[in-house]
Amino acid sequence: MPFIEEIAIANPKYCHKQEDILQFMQSVAPESEHRKLKMIYQKSEIKTRYSVIPDYSTQERTFYPPSKDLEPFPSVESRMKLFEKEALELCLSAVNKMQKKNDITHLITVTCTGLSAPGLDIALIKKLNLSTDIIRTSVNFMGCYAGFHALRLADSFCKSQKDAKVLIVDVELCTIHFQKTATEDNFLANALFADGASAVIVSNNNQNSCFELKGFHTELALEGEQSMAWQVASTGFLMTLNSYVPKFLTSNIEKLIAKSLEKNILNFSQIHHWAIHPGGSRILESIEKKLELKKVQLESSYKVLSEYGNMSSTTIFFVLKELENLVMKDENIFACGFGPGLTMESLVLKGI
């Protein structure tokens, strides 16, 4: 049976207060939109976010031009160069916090904010002195639920190979894709997303592990297919994230949970902890209300949202890290995340 042995997390050095980011956004938005932006930021429930770019809370510009309209606006090429420069170091910062990173047989890299080949996987193999015959897999461009997909792959590797030891490295530099066009999608994305990385080891070893992987289940809410999307453009990756997402999620969350629990031979009352991807405050609040949960039951998700924002796929590992010392032996955790499609991924874990 596969287990999560260890989780490590890391963030870039620039920690921005949400009110400072708001000032940056208002400085480049039409004055007619300033009030709307202020309301979005006040309702975000986010206090701080991290970025590899210092510009969002300082007058000194290092990535965006000093002009008021930020022209010439950074191209997708310049953003990918920044990703290549910063992502590897952030990944190494997470991996180097781990105690059990020896004898790795599989490497899974996860990101939807930077693409190149040879890419992050080969760079990590070189820096970490991993075996050149290591089995490597890249999970790209899947969005906020990609961490679940990586865990599912690791689970399969461990079930097919007794001595498998899988290292998942998940990094997202969402803030390098800031878009200045005054649209609701851009306003929401700019108010939520942040940068972070995580490293996770999955193996068949239950000694001093964090969690047991019990079972996965996925659902597609196709009526919300166009409400969340990622597209590549000349100025970076464009995020579609409209205000209907919480509605679509709450309309389908009960079906997701019911089928997942049925697979795992559990009932609702046997879930002791909840690890919900903090895609935004409205998502957490809507799910909390729909499932008739108390806010304290989603405390880890709310805390990660408040301190880090939405870091796309790596965020769920920050939530599980928060739960690491709270979950008792044999207690069950229901984890779920959401992304383009509209995809709803879930996982039941058990405390060790």
Show the helix and strand layout:
Elements: E1 3-10, E2 14-17, H1 18-28, H2 34-42, E3 48-51, H3 76-95, E4 106-111, H4 120-127, E5 135-140, H5 146-160, E6 165-173, H6 184-192, E7 195-203, E8 211-220, E9 228-233, E10 236-241, H7 245-263, E11 271-276, H8 281-290, H9 299-308, H10 315-323, E12 332-339, E13 343-351
Parallel strand pairs: 4-5, 4-6, 11-12
Antiparallel strand pairs: 1-7, 1-8, 2-3, 6-7, 8-13, 9-10, 12-13
Helix pairs in contact: 1-2, 3-4, 7-8, 9-10
Brief summary:
The chain has 352 residues and is of the alpha+beta class. 34% of the residues lie in helices and 26% in strands.
Structure description:
This protein is of the alpha+beta class and 352 residues long. It folds into two domains: 3-203, Thiolase/Chalcone synthase (Peroxisomal Thiolase, Chain A, domain 1, 3-Layer(aba) Sandwich); 211-351, Thiolase/Chalcone synthase (Peroxisomal Thiolase, Chain A, domain 1), CATH 3.40.47.10. 34% of the residues lie in helices and 26% in strands. It contains ten helices and 13 strands. A nine-stranded mixed β-sheet has the order 5-4-6-7-1-8-13-12-11, sandwiched between helices. Helix 1 (18-28) runs antiparallel to helix 2, helix 3 (76-95) runs parallel beside helix 4 (120-127) and helix 7 crosses helix 8.
Features of this protein?
single chain, 352 residues, alpha+beta, Peroxisomal Thiolase, Chain A, domain 1, 2 domains, 9-stranded mixed beta sheet, two-stranded antiparallel sheet, 10 helices, 34% helix
